[in-house]
Each structure stands twice: as C-alpha cells, then as structure tokens.
Amino acid sequence: MSLIPKKGTVYVVDDDEAVRDSLQWLLEGKDYRVKCFDSSESFLARFDPREVACLIADIRMEGMSGLELQDRLLERKSPLPIVFITGHGDVPMAVTTMKKGAMDFIEKPFKEAELLGLVERMLEQARNAFSHHQEQASRDALLSRLTTREAQVLERIVAGRLNKQIADDLGISIKTVEAHRANIMEKLNANTVADLLKIALGAGQAAKA
C-alpha cells in the first residue's frame, strides 16, 4: 500500500472520541487520509480549503453544533461536501442541513458500506469542484492580461457584435478593432473565436455561480 493515500482527505468532526477513533480506523483501512477534530471550532481553525476533501460531522456537539458549522462553511463559500451523523431524533434537523447543501445524513448506528459509499461520492464531488476551480483560476489569469480596451472589445465579441459595430461602439477604427482582436487571441492562447468564447463565457458563468 502506498505511504501516501491516493483517495483524498476525510475530515471527521465529532466530540465523541470513540466515534472519531472508529471512523479513523475504518477510513484509513480503506486508504483515505483522515483528520479528526473534537469540535467545530478546532476544525475551522485548521481547515485547509485548498485540499480535495470531504467532511463527516456529528449534528449535535458541545459548543458549535454541526448545523452552525455548516453555516460557517457556507459563509466562507466553501464547496466542501458534508455528510452528517445523526441520532434518531435528529432526522428533521438533518433534513434542514440537506436543504442547505449537505450531501446526506446517516443515522447511528450506521452501516460501514453506506458510509464508505457516501465518502466516495463526496470526494468525487470535491475533485470535480477542485478541477473547476483550477480551470477558473487559469481563465482568470489569462483574462487579467488584457488591457481595459481589449476587455471592452472582448465583451462585444462575446455579445456577437461585428468589427464595424464594435468600432462604432467604442469610437475607434475597424483596423484598431482588428488589432485588438489579434492581441486578445494571442494573450488568451485562443486559435479560434470558439476558443475565445469558451474562455470568456466560462469566466462569466463562474462569476454568476
């Protein structure tokens, strides 16, 4: 077995040491990297948002509850997938967490196979979110190379404006528009207008998300 787990990181937040130990034993045995915390507060202080990871948290804990922890993560716009561990009486509360974006909840005592299936689904979601974030960061870096005027020209290209219309909009010559278009294509590493649209529209969609 590799010394470096390949499957991703699972954060476990529970104020019950026996539960933490049990989950750590189960998940490490399946080659996951596990980081355990005895409170929501300690987790938030050490959570690394750059990590491809997921979170298993008890819904009822001393101090900050699992519900409050979820709210804090939402405030930070964290894409971290979450599954909650609940007692039988906590099901209505768990439904509330799902309405806020939690992937699922499992009741105690939970089945190992069910938990492992949820963990794999969460990490797949986390990998997709991380990949999307990396692509967006790459697009943002390219777009930041444009001058203000080039950005104005690109905005109009995306809107489907022709060179003559862009020239009229901006009060510049058609030749200047063509020169800007060439610079934009080069700076964004775009070979076609379709490439250009993918970069520009991808950035716009992420901004709306």
> Count of DSSP helices?
9
* Average pLDDT level: 87
Structural class call reads: alpha/beta
Number of strands: 5
Pick out the low-confidence regions.
Answer: 1-5, 204-209
Q: Level of helix content?
A: 55-70%
- Spatial arrangement of strands, main beta sheet: 2-1-3-4-5
**In angstroms, what separates the terminal alpha carbons?**
39 Å
Main beta sheet: 5 strands, parallel
Shape: elongated
Beta-strand percent range = 5-15%
Give the radius of gyration: 24 Å
Oligomeric state: single chain
Walk me through the structure:
- With 209 residues, the protein is an alpha/beta fold.
- The two termini are 39 Å apart.
- The protein contains 9 helices and 5 strands.
- Helix 6 (148-158) crosses helix 8 (174-187).
- The longest helix has 32 residues, at 112-143.
- It has helices at residues 17-28, 40-46, 66-75, 91-99, 112-143, 148-158, 163-170, 174-187, 193-208, and strands spanning 9-13, 33-37, 53-58, 82-86, 104-107.
- A 5-stranded parallel sheet has the order 2-1-3-4-5, with helices on both faces.
